[in-house]
From TrEMBL, chain A:
UniProt protein name: Amino acid ABC superfamily ATP binding cassette transporter, membrane protein
GO cellular component, one term: ATP-binding cassette (ABC) transporter complex
Signal peptide (from-to): none
Subcellular location(s) of the protein: Cell membrane
InterPro entries according to UniProt: AA_ABC_transptr_permease_3TM (IPR010065), ArtM/GltK/GlnP/TcyL/YhdX-like (IPR043429), MetI-like (IPR000515), MetI-like_sf (IPR035906)
Membrane topology reported for the UniProt record: Multi-pass membrane protein
Organism, scientific name: Limosilactobacillus frumenti DSM 13145
Entry keywords, A to Z: Amino-acid transport, Cell membrane, Membrane, Transmembrane, Transmembrane helix, Transport
TrEMBL record, chain B:
Pfam families reported for this sequence: BPD_transp_1
Keyword list, A-Z: Amino-acid transport, Cell membrane, Membrane, Transmembrane, Transmembrane helix, Transport
Biological process terms in GO annotation: amino acid transport
Localization in the cell: Cell membrane
InterPro entries: AA_ABC_transptr_permease_3TM (IPR010065), ArtM/GltK/GlnP/TcyL/YhdX-like (IPR043429), MetI-like (IPR000515), MetI-like_sf (IPR035906)
UniProt domain ABC transmembrane type-1: residue ranges: 20-209
Taxonomic classification: Bacteria, Bacillati, Bacillota, Bacilli, Lactobacillales
Bilayer topology: Multi-pass membrane protein
Protein name: Amino acid ABC superfamily ATP binding cassette transporter, membrane protein
Automatic annotation (TrEMBL), chain C:
Protein name in the entry: Extracellular solute-binding protein
SMART domains per the UniProt record, alphabetical: PBPb, PBPe
Keyword line: Signal, Transport
GO CC, alphabetical: extracellular region; membrane; outer membrane-bounded periplasmic space
Gene Ontology process terms (BP): amino acid transport
Provenance organism: Limosilactobacillus frumenti DSM 13145
Source domain of life: Bacteria
Gene Ontology terms, MF aspect: ligand-gated monoatomic ion channel activity
Solute-binding protein family 3/N-terminal domain location: 42-266
Length: 212, 217, 276
């Protein structure tokens, strides 16, 4: 096991870096897109609400692998060149944004309705009330679930292995195939995933307890 | 357009449906197994039995924090080291069960925690044993509380079966790959079919949950 | 105190898992595959299910078809007699060796090149098919041979775990190699322009070119890739028996008949050169 680490550490580290990079980009992207669709879902207008919930339901009910592969194979055929890393990250962003939309919506609903009314009575527009009053409070509530979403992102980013995205899992597959030391290689890869996810998940549990 | 008509020939659609059937079979088997095992593990973790709960809890945390792909590899390539040599389908069910049980255990534990401890105390005061109180009073209420989380976990499970293509599990995604691998004009029709089929299965699962939720209230 | 127990549990779990990972599989090494198979009257083969001409799942029937499938069936009959049964387990280049070592399968016949590196891990029979590595490109592509790809920015597609990606890294070190999980993925990726060329063995490429008229095999063979049947170490009796069966099939014409059946109509394939 040690010889795998000593001989393969450059590719393992670059894989780890790509995994983290992809997860962070996807987290930021899906936070933006997710918040947008959460706002659509609570709109006054029925048509906009429907658009929001169709988006959420579609991306929640289709496997991430299907979404990522579709971007990897279909986009370059008809539109533009796209690397496996980009395709995987876009797929991951869209997939996660549906879950984040649900989280944000629950967060907004947890803020009292009276606050919105108060803000409107004080002369703020709905958009301003959302921006300055409701969303900041909502985001506080949703920090623990967002942390859990980030852990899911790190785990789900392993789908990049299917689209040659040079993430940790892809590098692990390469090393396992190369050295034929399958179990030791995946053992090391597993430890590397745990280094990111395990402390984070314990911290999130701690945070949940503190906020509750 | 012609590609779509050709791609959805009966032969291809039947091949996709065969894959879908495997996906459903594997999902149902894994849902049942992981619900039973997950509930047991969740109770063990909740009960704070000396050492046992700590170790079980830690293993659950390890599994929950690893990508499912790794669990699949460990199951398919690692289990033979301890004398179990699963074929592809049992291996996929085992891997999904291991992963989802850990997820379910955590849902069950927080579901039980959400029930006021006063209820257990009341039940104990009325002469029920601890196990009876859990089984008759706490769990039925907890299951209702955790139904939404459980269902979205099971929807994830159905979607996650697609990852088992990596060990050549002949499920929906793999069958679609075989079809578009032989004729690349079929890529888009196949991805449309994949999206529709997975959506129908997963969405009906969430509709079922909504129905149950209304009727249990 | 609770924290401490967590750490102890951590160590215990790591040690157990590490122990399981470390200990080699005794039972597989000791088992005599040949006598076990003679007794059960069946041989379990690891084969490809996505490779045209060698091993491909038929969409109509759901059965596996190809040269390797037919050859495996013929060899099984030769070794076990008329009532011998074949069990086929679909494998990829990534899964085949772990499955063999674990004993899920008795032998690999899955377009596996005999190489010195692999021979350290598994034992090979004589070659049953002499392939060579080549390139598949879109018709009209400026790429004529492997040297055209040896520059920065070139992207070559391959299948992870195959020997061809290792070769290409040596011959065209400046090109970037994208490794996909199987040939269906790789061909689709080539069609969606994820790379300029797809590299693997000529036999597989001919199969792809015959199915995709806009693509052609170029540049000739730049390596020799003899395919062998892989068995576990310490299974000399089984390997010798496989060699014996292969030699008999070559002598009685079955081999040539199968070669003609699968490759007779393939453009670019020289039957006269390949027959035995």
């Amino acid at each position: 096991m040690l010889e795998i680490i000593s001989s393969q550490w450059p590719s393992l580290l670059s894989g780890l870096w790509n995994t983290i990079l992809c997860s962070v980009i996807a987290l930021i992207g899906s936070l933006i897109i997710g918040t947008f669709f959460a706002l659509l879902e609570i709109s006054k207008y029925k048509v906009i609400r429907i658009i929001g919930s169709v988006y959420v339901e579609v991306f929640r009910n289709i496997p991430l692998l299907v979404i990522a592969m579709a971007f990897f194979l279909i986009v370059p055929m008809y539109f533009t060149k796209i690397s496996g890393f980009t395709a995987g990250t876009i797929g991951l962003t869209l997939y996660t944004s549906a879950f984040i939309a649900e989280t944000v919506r629950a967060g907004i609903n947890s803020v009292e309705a009276g606050q919105l009314e108060g803000a409107l009575a004080n002369g703020l527009t709905t958009g301003q009330a959302m921006r300055y009053i409701i969303l900041p409070q909502a985001f506080k509530v949703i920090i623990p679930p967002l942390g859990n979403q980030f852990i899911n992102l790190v785990k789900n980013s392993s789908v990049l292995a299917f689209v040659a995205g040079f993430d940790l899992m892809y590098e692990g597959n390469m090393i396992a195939n190369d050295t034929l030391q399958t179990i030791p290689t995946y053992f090391i890869v597993g430890i590397m995933y745990l280094i990111i996810t395990l402390p984070l998940s314990y911290y999130m549990r701690h945070l949940e307890k503190k906020l509750a | 357009m012609q590609n779509f008509i050709d791609a959805y020939s009966w032969v291809n659609v039947r091949f996709l449906l065969q894959g879908l059937w495997i996906t459903i079979e594997i999902s149902v088997a894994s849902i049942i197994c992981s619900f039973i095992i997950g509930t047991l593990l969740g109770i063990i973790r909740y009960e704070k039995i000396h050492y046992v709960s700590a170790i079980v809890g830690f293993i659950i945390d390890l599994i929950r924090n690893l990508p499912l792909l790794l669990i699949i590899f460990f199951t398919y390539f690692g289990l033979p080291n301890i004398g179990i040599k699963p074929e592809i389908i049992p291996a996929a069910i085992m891997a999904l069960t291991i992963f989802e049980s850990a997820m379910v255990a955590e849902i069950v534990r927080s579901g039980i925690l959400s029930i006021d401890y006063g209820q257990t105390e009341g039940a104990l005061a009325n002469g029920l044993t601890k196990w009876q109180a859990l089984r008759l009073i706490v769990l039925p209420q907890a299951i209702k509380n955790m139904l939404p989380a459980l269902v979205s976990q099971f929807i994830s499970l159905v979607k996650d079966t697609s990852l088992a293509t990596i060990i050549v599990l002949p499920e929906l995604m793999y069958h679609a790959q075989i079809i578009y691998g032989q004729n690349t004009n079929y890529i888009i029709p196949m991805f449309v079919a994949l999206a529709v089929m997975y959506f129908i299965v997963c969405y009906s699962l969430s509709l079922l949950a909504r129905y149950l939720d209304h009727h249990m209230a | 105190m609770k924290k401490l127990w967590h750490w102890i549990a951590l160590c215990a779990v790591l040690l157990t898992v590490g122990g399981l990972a470390g200990c080699s599989n005794q039972s597989v090494a000791k088992r005599d595959v040949l006598s076990a198979d003679m007794k059960s009257k069946q041989i379990t083969w690891g084969v490809k299910s996505d490779t045209r001409l060698f091993g491909l799942e038929n969409i109509r029937t759901g059965k596996l078809e190809g040269f390797e499938i037919d050859l495996a069936k013929a060899m099984t009959k030769e070794i076990l007699g008329k009532d011998g049964k074949c069990v086929f387990v679909p494998v990829t280049s990534g899964t085949r060796v772990p499955l063999l070592k674990n004993g899920n399968i008795d032998a690999i016949m899955a377009t596996m090149t005999i190489t010195p590196d692999r021979a350290k891990q598994v034992d090979f029979t004589h070659s049953y098919f002499d392939a060579g590595q080549s390139l598949l490109v879109k018709k009209g592509s400026p790429i004529k041979n492997i040297q055209d790809l040896n520059h920065k920015g070139a992207v070559i597609l391959g299948v992870s775990g195959s020997n061809s990606v290792k070769n290409v890294a040596k011959i065209a070190p400046k090109a970037r190699v994208l490794q996909l999980s199987d040939y269906a993925q790789a061909m689709t990726a080539l069609k969606s322009k994820q790379g300029q060329a797809l590299t693997t063995d000529n036999g597989i490429l001919y199969g792809m070119a015959s199915e995709n008229p806009g693509y052609e095999v170029v540049g000739g063979n730049f390596t020799k890739e003899p395919y062998g049947i892989a068995v576990n170490k310490n299974q000399q009796r089984f390997r010798n028996k496989l060699n014996w069966a292969l030699a008999r099939l070559e002598k009685n014409g079955t081999y040539n008949r199968l070669l003609l059946k699968w490759f007779g109509n393939v453009k670019g394939f020289n039957y006269q050169e390949m027959k035995r």
